[in-house]
């Protein structure tokens, strides 16, 4: 059966939603006849209060919910360190959930956190999330939400991201200037914000240096590198092209390490046969063989700024007249995995 809402009752009885809400709470402000009308209709239609809506009262729990794809990813662990460093000092507890890049888990995590009466949410979208209604409904009910790293385009709130376009452009430009001409891009699902931004930077660098964009050199991994078989299939497709790439720019930690693992098993020499640059925050990049050229994101600072914006929304909602999207600079660190050819 379809769940009936306060709005449905109000429409059916030609009353305002606030009147219906107060009648259901047995408020003294509503006359007995109206209360009786509302209560009888609600009972007849099997109305049950929404537990999420009930949790969105004015009382504060001094806790913040955080939903990220995975803690094991070094970028996200740095993000959490930044969040906790600020939240703790401001008197807030942090409750962390992992979506494991599952839309269903993301929704379940969201509902649970809200049912536990968190004051707000910090969210980095799962790779399989294309429907944002679970966040939109909560924001309409007044729950503060701030997105970071993987952010939606069509929800208006504070967002904190890395400058993915510039980071990607600089990585691709570096490979070009190192003598590479057939540069592939291994990336996440196309509908993620980080994917479209990094792809745009990659394409712009190719364009600026007169290298035609070839769609066959771009491979999208639905699970963003978490599934080994998916990584291998994408890399195999690249290597089996009539003109295989002489460089690969990867868009995440998992994709980078997965790519290097395949090269090692196949005996492909880096950078002699294929150069590689990763968009990654792994702490052991310089210890890999060869040491990995990386685009680093300011993950800790992103977490700090995101939680500051969220707490501002929680504590001063009436003062929010505009929302910010903060884009933090990335840094390209060049190591042995991407050098070795004559610079053009």
Automatic annotation (TrEMBL):
Q: Which UniProt keywords apply?
A: DNA-binding, Isomerase, Transcription, Transcription regulation
Enzyme class comes to: isomerase
Molecular function, one GO term? alanine racemase activity
Q: What is its EC number?
A: 5.1.1.1
- Record SMART domains: HTH_LACI
**Where in the numbering of this chain does the HTH lacI-type domain appear?**
4-58
* A Pfam family recorded for this sequence: Peripla_BP_3
What Gene3D superfamilies does this protein map onto? 3.40.50.2300, lambda repressor-like DNA-binding domains
Domain of life, per UniProt, equals Bacteria
Q: Any idea what this protein is called?
A: Transcriptional regulator, LacI family
Q: Which organism is it from?
A: Dyadobacter fermentans (strain ATCC 700827 / DSM 18053 / CIP 107007 / KCTC 52180 / NS114)
Query: Lineage in the entry?
Result: Bacteria, Pseudomonadati, Bacteroidota, Cytophagia, Cytophagales
């Amino acid at each position: 059966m379809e769940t009936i809402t306060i709005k449905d009752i109000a429409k059916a009885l030609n009353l305002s939603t606030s009147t219906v809400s107060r009648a259901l709470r047995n408020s003294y402000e509503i006359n007995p006849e109206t209360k009786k009308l509302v209560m009888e209709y609600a009972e007849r239609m099997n109305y049950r209060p929404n537990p999420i809506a009930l949790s969105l009262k004015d009382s504060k729990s001094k806790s913040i919910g955080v939903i990220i794809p995975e803690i094991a990813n070094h970028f996200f662990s740095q993000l959490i360190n930044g969040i906790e460093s600020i939240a703790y000092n401001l008197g807030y507890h942090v409750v962390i959930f992992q979506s494991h890049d599952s839309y269903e888990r993301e929704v379940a995590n969201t509902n649970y956190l809200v049912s536990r009466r968190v004051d707000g949410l910090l969210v980095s979208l799962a790779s399989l999330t294309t429907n944002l209604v679970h966040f939109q409904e909560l924001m309409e009910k007044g729950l503060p939400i701030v997105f970071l790293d993987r952010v939606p385009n069509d929800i208006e709130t504070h967002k904190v991201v890395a400058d993915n376009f510039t980071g990607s452009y600089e990585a691709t430009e570096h490979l070009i200037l190192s003598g590479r001409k057939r540069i592939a891009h291994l990336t996440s699902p196309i509908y993620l914000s980080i994917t479209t931004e990094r792809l745009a930077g990659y394409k712009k660098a190719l364009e600026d240096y007169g290298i035609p964009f070839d769609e066959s050199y771009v491979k999208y991994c639905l699970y963003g590198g978490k599934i080994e078989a998916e990584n291998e299939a994408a890399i195999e497709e690249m290597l089996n092209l009539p003109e295989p790439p002489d460089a690969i720019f990867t868009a995440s930690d998992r994709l980078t390490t997965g790519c290097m693992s395949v090269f090692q098993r196949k005996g492909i020499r880096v950078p002699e046969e294929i150069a590689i640059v990763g968009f990654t925050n792994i702490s052991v990049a310089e210890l890999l063989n060869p040491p990995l050229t990386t685009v680093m994101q300011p993950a800790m600072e992103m977490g700090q700024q995101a939680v500051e914006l969220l707490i501002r929304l929680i504590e001063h909602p009436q003062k929010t007249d505009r929302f910010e999207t903060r884009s933090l600079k990335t840094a390209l660190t060049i190591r042995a995995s991407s050098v070795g050819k004559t610079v053009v």
